[in-house]
Amino acid sequence: MSSDQKLENLKNNLKAMGSAAIAFSGGVDSAFLVKVAHDALGNKVLAVTATSETYPESELKDAKDLAKIIGVKHKVIKTQELKKKNFSQNSPLRCYFCKGELFSELQKIAKAKRIKYVLDASNLDDLSDYRPGRKAAKELGVRSPLAEAGLTKKEIRVFSKKMGLPTWSKPSQACLASRIPYGTKITEKELAKVDNAENFLRQLGLRELRVRNHGQIARIEVPPKDLPLVFKNNQTIVQKFKEIGFIYVTLDLQGYRTGSLNEVLKNA
Length: 268
Fold this sequence. Notes:
The protein is α/β, with parallel strands linked by helices. It contains twelve helices and seven strands. A four-stranded parallel beta sheet has the order 3-2-1-4, sandwiched between helices. It has a three-stranded mixed beta sheet with strand order 5-6-7, covered by helices on one side.
């Protein structure tokens, strides 16, 4: 099936829904879904952004700005993941519990506003990755129109560029909790260390990156092409990371990759 046919199917599926509340992080996929849904359904779409200690403040600003650009109705809610043991204890099912709370809140909003469907922005590529949040979505009846239409991340970026969405080239994002190894308790302090460290690296001109928080050790992941920039600023990075609270600063020679902390599950 061609990319254009997939997009047409997505539009038709959204029109058939009548109304929708969409989990909106402000990332590539959710921005694209909200844009297409708003074009198809107008004011019958509500974009909902959940903010908490796991969600960078800069991402919240981006989500608000995007909602204004698209023209969609936007609601920001506060979630309390860190107060729940099944999340803060950080088992491999962490995302299941997090998404379960998020989608439950969206369903309450949808019910109160008489919105027919709750949607998330999972794409076709996500179905092949370890994503326990997908189980929560399935259990709660949340639909994933991008995946249903067979749209991949690459196709979504191409269409986003054609539509003029500024997110078309935005690096993939994930909640800050994904930087902390399974089994290590998630706290506001450790999340803040990650957020501050990653913001500093972005100020140096890096775009695709992760700072994995291994307690006293910060493990930096960047694409191989960006290694020279890291080496050029190595002393500045070390000094800043130590101010943030890390003792040791390391560079992962395997480079940037999403979900690197899931590698321990594959080898278990």
